[in-house]
Amino acid sequence: MAIAEDETTSDQTTSDQTTTETHTRTCPLCEAMCGLRITVEAGQQVKLIRANQDDVWSKGYLCPKGTTLGHMHHDPDRLTMPMIRTGDSWREATWPEAFAECERLIRGVVETHGKEAFTAYIGNPTVHNYSLSRYVGAFTGMSGISPIYSAGTVDQWPKNVSSALLYGNPWVIPTPDLDRTDMLVIMGANPQASQGSLLAAADVLGRCDAIRERGGTVVVVDPRRTGTVDHADEWLPIRPGTDAALLLAVINVFAADELIDLGRMAEFVDGVDVVVAAAADFTPEAVAETCAIPADRIRRLAHQLAEAPTSVVYGRIGTCNQEFGSLASWLVDVVNMLTGNFDRPGGLMFSSPMTEPLAHLPRPSQNGPDGRAAFGRWTSRVRGAPEVLGQVPVSCMAEEIDTPGEGQLHGLITIAGNPVLSAPESARLAQALPMLDCMISIDNWLNETTKHAHVILPGQGHLEQSHCDEMIWSWAIRNAAKWSPALFPPPDDHPREWEVLLTVAGLFMGAAADEIDTALLDDLFFGGVVGTVVAEPTSPIHGRDQAEIVAATPGRGPDRLADFSIRRGVHGDHYGANPDGWTLARLQEHPDGVDLGPLESRLPELLQTPDGRIDIAPAYLLADLPRLRARLGRSEDGLVLVSRRHLRSNNSWMHNIKVLVKGKDRCTLMIHPDDAEAAGVTAGAKARVSSESGEVEIPVEVTDEMMPGVVSLPHGWGHDVEGTRLSVAREHAGVNSNLLAPGHLVDPLSGNAIVNGIPVEVTPAG
Fold first, then answer.
1. Is the pLDDT assigned to residue 14 strictly greater than 80?
2. Which of 465, 501, 461, 459 is nearest to 483 (CA)?
3. 16 inside domain
């Protein structure tokens, strides 16, 4: 949905003695990173937000969410001062008071139970926040809190696992080259609602239309006929959790019909014969009934992918948070490799981000003795869940809090997260959080999770801080960069979010709240980052003097880190070694952003595997194939539940904005007409949806948008909880779909939650 400007505005006008200014900005809400023009009146009131037609990245595209940043900034429910809870009562506090209370709470737990009684939860908004994204690592490292939990194990952890095994780094993730492909297969993703995900692009649907206009083909593989299908040539309904079986059948056809052609990838790839042998049992006929896709259509899909001039398979959240998420994530990349559509234009490629993320540095601590990714180095206390990339399933957090014994959790720090709505088996977590002796939340709202905190430390709003995405450019469909200055200064006595994180970290280091020097901690953190980078042999500034680099990078906080990420990156000035390279100061001279051109082949330079090659048949993944084979013989009785998102909703973030939630109720149970008749439920009436974990009652939406046997609930709702301050969200409460998600249901290879494909029963309510 492209939103054009209604009128042309000058940089500064004066009308009736009221000053109006228009600012250029990047929307921070999702991976589309759309350009905005924000009109501000009297230096403090957002009056209008429209698309920036001159933005080099989004070129005038903008979705409805981006127009509401002013509503978020001016939301009367947004917290602007620290809050301290006593019993069920909250009061505003000064920052010294709040930090002193944090010190008291933290010290009490540490002295009684040790630092190991603490954990932290990192929420999804962190990656979209200029300060938090760059300083959450400083917080976890300096505080010594380990292990932590994150939204990643409900989202993309299988993709991190497959990338760690294939490329040697969990955050080296390829992206589809949408602008140059001739065939696009979208699996488990709905860009109509979410734009891109692990795919940075503005107007993905417009790019789908462009593929078709130039004679190409777009196919959507999904249990639901989403809005993305309106921009595709074909919808292939698939039974949830069977994507890996479909992809193995496609590989089976590649081998049987002699369609495998790695192209230049043959120089870097090992294990093709092993993968072909592993796919031998997964013929189209063997998987057709399980996937609910005819065998002849699977064969034709394989030939389409292999015979198109260029093709690319893109798999996203529906291929991750399911029963075989790691296998599906791995096989998406393998299929692209076997057709030669990997690391070449029109296929699956790697970007060259100007803002080089620290996550791209080698991670030897996560590897085994052979230098390859290793998992299961420890297990959780209660469930015995194996560690994967330093984390266990987020559903473990509740049981680690409410189960007595040595190692029980007594303290929790949440950072920009709402796991009471976003974590599986959320009812248990909501009951467990009041058991904590210390809970501190860094958050801007009193929501379903932070209501349990003892102290809430608010950060800046999106418009009160600069913005320059870091990690997201790593999976962008073009090489580009943008930087936006803050529109509004926060109050003088309000610490920046990075200072809040460093202060809380300092408390864990044993310092008194009134003695913590965040500038010193920042210097220590930055010096350590520089030291790590100059010691890395693949870095463009390898071997440089650490003190010299620190001295040559002025400023403080995220601005300094942003400058360093640019200067040390592939496009940077390398601190004088590349005089024509980029710096933050130079980027700031381009308010509409910088386009550095299309994606280019980046292998083998990106590979961090011990031998510099890609083993496409990792034993860790192959060991899960017997479980998938057993799935082929499982009966398909009953209904299964899948999740969904709406264009006007970012998980639970946006539900307190009236202009986004008003209108038709979007928290409904979507069900196919045949299933509705069999269940005895009717459109508009309420149905009871139950699983082994719980039940909810929700209005019914009967639609052939769903394939038979599959029902859908949106996630992120359930705002009817007492004790929150979300006045608009409460009026549109909806139900919490994670009440139905059993915590023990995870993909065993990644620990990622299974929230797509949950067995449920649907009956009339009442």
1. no
2. 465
3. yes
